[in-house]
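ok so I'm stuck.
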Amino acid sequence: MNLAGKRVWLSGASSGIGEELAKQLAAKGAKLVLSARNEQALEQVKNSLMGQGHVVLPLDLSAAESLLKELPEQLAAIGDIDILINNGGVSQRSLFADTDFATYQQLMAVNYFGTVALTKLVVAQMQARKQGMIVAISSVAGKVGSKFRSGYSGSKYAVVGFMDCIRAELAADGIHCLTVCPGSVQTRIAHNSLNEKGVAQNHSEQSIENGMPVSACVQEIITAIEKQKQEVVIGQGLSYWAPTIKRFFPRLFNRLTARLEYR
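replied:
not stuck anymore, here's the structure
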């Protein structure tokens, strides 16, 4: 797929993987619709991009029902979306027994229902044109579970399952679906991860600091888009190999995760 001239709607575009995706996609000639909650940060990202025709569309993924009511008119003014990248999301670091139920609801609202809502908003026009691409940035945590991530992992497993289903449903309409499962990547995801009370923990973690550079991760994501792959795992070290280890050595993997204090 040639990305030049493609209209790409990107959520979570204000920082981390999203911000780097915006920069690398713009460098390839794509026209970006940049979404996140922080409008000022989105404007800064927009002003840093190569090319013209980029648009800022602020939104709150936790308010999925409102998005379905409020965004159709704005999207109609922007025009057809060629590629939707569901990148926005939030992580979690807390033990299940300590975690408030409301924190699980918050994680599902942003990571899962936000993805479903944005996909709902573009699928009809993609079906009408018999073309388009839907990308979801899930996580290695959507393929394997570990301590401290029961809410995050559950929401990302849901994204993987959702994408598997719509990939089958939309294949006849010429719509391609790509699921991306990154491992540890050097972003602020750990700082923003929710604790048991649903509040950002506001500190980093060794696994993230030693993770894959965000620019390298994004290069692999864009390659997967260009090659129209269906699912990719991206990472290095344990975060890359974990799904394979679990698939072929499930008992070993389960023993390891029970012992590891992986943060």
